[in-house]
Amino acid sequence: MDKMINLIDFGLKEETKRKFEENYKGYFLGRVSVEHKNMYRVITEKGEILSKISGKLNYKAILKSDYPAVGDWVILNKDNEKDGIGIIQGILPRKSVFSRNIPGKKNEEQIIASNIDKVFICMALNNDFNIRRLERYISLAWDSGAQPIVILTKADLCKNISEKISKAEEVAFGINILVVSSINLEGIDRIKAQIKPKDTVAFIGSSGVGKSTIINILLGEERQKVNDIRKDDKGRHTTTYRELIKLPCGGIVIDTPGMRELQIYNGDLETSFSDINEISKNCYFRDCKHESEPKCAVKKAIEEGKITEERLKSYKKLQKELEYMEDKKLLNSKQLEKKKIVNMLGSLDGIKKIKNRK
Ligand SMILES: Nc1nc2c(ncn2[C@@H]2O[C@H](COP(=O)(O)OP(=O)(O)OP(=O)(O)O)[C@@H](O)[C@H]2O)c(=O)[nH]1
Ligand SMILES: [Zn+2]
């Protein structure tokens, strides 16, 4: 740990650095690289430090998203450096966020990774190729705040590449589309060219499309495992993959297990369906659902072959999913308010007592 680490190599931006230096004198800055159960690995200038969150941060945290996530820039307490455990005092504002619903019980946002600048959406050119799925991934990417780039993988297995590219272009407005084969290394340089030195990038897409293969090629070696000094529930020493990886060509890759099972949480329909949004401005009714309303510009565009029926269908389907999510979030925010009041007053009984006094 004697070798100093330059956090710029781990994606530290001027703005984040300034914010930290102005507001947190006496503390030190780090970036979360792995999330364990109640512990985090944090990369600092002095090396990777196993850390936990402060009691205060834990007390203030209401939602899952109030806890640190991989990619977060966090403020660490200097005093606790001696015993090897860092104490996370706070999280700097996130520039971009990838999240998903917590499977099972609560409908709450769980942050999978944060502060990603560019996200490579991977789709294989063989049987995985599905334009509707690509649409969803693009929507999800825009909403995260990261810049999407499409990678069409396994080019060696495809005979009608140009046809598939034009199909992808139909849904990927203004987005770079790269054609790649990890077998003959075609297009790998184009991926490298997209990753600038301070960029934090991530790869998303269905299982088996070749994400790990690309990451390994960029790394020039197999993914390293990190040996964990912590023991798991059964007393075993556990091994985990490093989830925030520095690339030899410059830049950082975030690859968490959660990234691989991303579902739509918050699609940004405005951007990914800008064609439909634009056309629908000419619908006679402002709240036109593009179903059986008269003078519907979207229906007309379909008749004229400007957009496909399928695209409208997937737009509507996504819209429904998002509305459903919004309802749930609304419910969630009500529960949140309640919880905040309870935190303030100690308990719901406390609220009743105050009310009764009036
Ligand atoms: N023909 C061909 N096969 C590839 C290419 N890239 C990867 N593969 C193969 O596809 C399989 C899956 O690749 P992975 O890199 O593990 O896929 P992944 O997207 O990381 O999958 P998950 O870890 O499940 O998310 C492996 O058997 C690879 O060897 C390619 O460009 N061409
Ligand atoms: Zn309409």
Q: Descriptors for this entry?
A:
358 residues, alpha/beta, OB fold (Dihydrolipoamide Acetyltransferase, E2P), Rossmann fold, Ribonucleotide Reductase Protein R1, domain 1, 3 domains, six-stranded mixed beta sheet, five-stranded mixed beta barrel, 11 helices, binds guanosine-5'-triphosphate, binds zinc ion, zinc, GTP-binding, nucleotide-binding, cytoplasm, Ribosome_biogen_GTPase_RsgA
What can you tell me about this protein's structure?
By secondary structure, the protein is an alpha/beta fold. It folds into three domains: 7-93, Beta Barrel (OB fold (Dihydrolipoamide Acetyltransferase, E2P)), CATH 2.40.50.140; 98-261, P-loop containing nucleotide triphosphate hydrolases (Rossmann fold), CATH 3.40.50.300; 269-345, Probable gtpase engc, domain 3 (Ribonucleotide Reductase Protein R1, domain 1). Helix content is 34%, strand content 23%. It has helices at 14-23, 55-60, 131-144, 161-171, 188-194, 211-219, 269-272, 274-280, 297-303, 309-345, 348-357, and strands spanning 27-35, 40-44, 47-53, 73-77, 85-91, 97-101, 109-114, 118-124, 147-153, 177-179, 200-204, 225-231, 237-241, 244-246, 252-254. The strands form four sheets. A six-stranded mixed sheet has the order 10-9-8-11-15-14, sandwiched between helices. The radius of gyration is 23 Å and the shape is globular. The model is unreliable at 228-232 and 344-358 (pLDDT under 50). The structure holds guanosine-5'-triphosphate and zinc ion.
